[in-house]
Amino acid sequence: MHVARRTDAVxxxxxxxxxxxxxxxxxxxxxxxxxxxxxxxxxxSALACGALVTSRRYRRRWTRAEVRVGSLxxxxxxxxxxxETYGVAHTSAANAGxxxxxxxxxxxxxxxxxxxxxxxxxxxxxGLCVVAVGLLTSSTGLHAPRLGDVLMxxxxxxxxxxxxxxxxxxxxxxxxxxxxxxxxxxxxxxxFLPLAVTHLPDLVHSSVTTWTQLIYLALFCSVFAxxxxxxxxxxxxxxxxxxxxxxxxxxxxxxxxxxGGERLTLWATFxxxxxxxxxxxxxxxxxxxxxxxxxxxxxxxxxxxMTPTSA
Length: 311
Description:
mainly alpha; cell membrane; single chain; 13 helices; globular
């Protein structure tokens, strides 16, 4: 029981850290250009991962597959963070955390590893989330969606593709999670360095507050969150882990309002409730569908279907 509670606490902490990342990123982009923030986040993460990989207590050999897959995922992850960081710079942290949660219902649509079509109720849940996005983006009246909201919506689509790609490239292949994370952070650093080189003087002369936010984004929201998630998921069920990690948008709203001074209108609040309800509902439907499909597949293998013979 003690181990289970500790595992749950770690997963909730990961969700809280991810939920807080939107306000931290939004605040950092006020002081620095987005590309400088992204380069600093990746560079600090790469240094931390490199220190862990080369430590005496961690002696595992790299494989070509880890380098190849990690490099590819580094490109797709960089695309996600570009859209997320530019998006949160032009919308509220609460909106950003809610819209990005669409990833939960978009990922099963992009992941074609399953052998059966999703039930119609899943698409109903996805439609509920679409309505929620509409309420969030037009909470102050009917108008064109804000740039930040559109970018966060694009980030949710790209992140869903990234998650589906992770599953496809790592399925059935023993790969070290720290090696994959290190490869991704190194690739991200290399991609953003030439784009942020003109902003390096501003980065070097940033305030202590800004550097604290950058270090928090790198060490806690990236390195710690990924490794803690990997450790915690191994000690609990996938269903329970996804339920606890699914509280990320709730933390994003709570932190945005309490620490960021943001406010939600009545319609936006209604949209937030619909978004959380829709993502949880869709998540539960997909999980049940996946479990049923796996069980049926095993039964089919154990008892092959008899084909009729001619008389």
